[in-house]
Specification:
Elements (H helix, E strand, L loop, with lengths): L28 H12 L17
Family: Belongs to the universal ribosomal protein uL16 family.
Protein name: 50S ribosomal protein L16
GO cellular component, one term: cytosolic large ribosomal subunit
């Protein structure tokens, strides 16, 4: 009989709550917010924008 293993269907990564996924520099805050807003629609989790130096809630 075969080994019962097929080809991988996809990749999975465990991401803990509060983990920073993207860092953006060299552009205005307005453009960065819009880019991350568009990217957040592609993610299956709730996201928020955090600015360096600001206290997290």
């Amino acid at each position: 009989m075969g080994s019962g293993k097929g080809a991988p269907e996809g990749w999975v990564a465990v991401v803990q709550p509060g983990r920073i996924l993207f860092e953006i520099g060299g552009i205005s805050e307005e453009i960065a917010r819009e880019a991350l807003r568009l990217a957040s629609h592609k993610l299956p989790v709730k996201t928020r924008f955090v600015k360096k130096g600001e206290e997290e809630k």
